[in-house]
Design a protein that fits this description.
With about 200 residues, the protein is mainly alpha-helical. It has a domain of about 130 residues. It has a three-stranded antiparallel β-sheet with strand order 1-2-3. A hairpin with a 5-residue loop joins strand 2 and strand 3.
């Protein structure tokens, strides 16, 4: 424990915790906000990489059935779009529809062979970055869940604040009824709490 010039403990002369901690809280909050911003920037950058991978897939293959592609579909919450690796397949009406693929192989048609290595590498990179994106989204989901749990804590804090105001008011009222004089600031707070009751 640090000693002040007069030899007394500095901790005994400190401000109340809230006032003393505000600068540290502000610095921590700024750091946390910066980190959260960076997480969302990284997510947007990964989305941009995946969009570019889709462009590589589209230029490296002929416009035929069997072509690999990336499609963005809404997740189960309906709020975000997630990328899926797909293969364009024919329907009964000879139209094409995207079908999600798990394992990659190129269509057998000779026109797919010209850029086969480019296509496979682009799709391989897509799988890798889609996984990184999923990890990042999971971390964001956990942060949001944790923040959502704070709502209950905020209610408890407000209830505790009202309880402590009630205790403070009773103590001040007892002092007044006992004939003791309160300083101006204390009396002003007493009157404010009395009006709230």
């Amino acid at each position: 424990m640090d000693k002040s010039a007069d030899g007394k403990d500095d901790d005994l002369k400190s401000d109340f915790g809230r006032a003393a901690n505000q600068a540290d809280y502000a610095a921590d909050r700024g750091d946390l906000v910066g980190r959260i911003d960076r997480v969302y920037r990284n997510l947007a950058e990964i989305d941009g990489l995946i969009d570019r991978m889709a462009q590589v897939l589209r230029i490296s293959q002929p416009p035929m059935f069997g072509k690999l592609d990336i499609r963005w579909w809404k997740d189960r919450t309906g709020s975000y779009r997630d990328p899926f690796g797909v293969r364009w397949m024919p329907t009964k009406l000879k139209k094409s529809k995207p079908v999600v693929v798990q394992r990659v192989s190129l269509a057998k048609h000779p026109k797919f062979q010209l850029n086969s290595k480019v296509t496979l590498r682009a799709f391989s990179h897509f799988k890798q970055w889609a996984e990184e994106r999923n990890k990042l989204r999971s971390k964001i989901w956990r942060m949001k869940k944790m923040a959502g749990q704070l709502e209950g804590l905020e209610r408890q804090i407000e209830e505790e604040r009202r309880f402590l105001d009630g205790l403070w008011y009773r103590a001040a009222k007892n002092l007044i009824e006992d004939g003791q004089v309160l300083d101006a600031d204390t009396y002003e707070e007493f009157r404010r709490l009395e009006e709230e009751e």
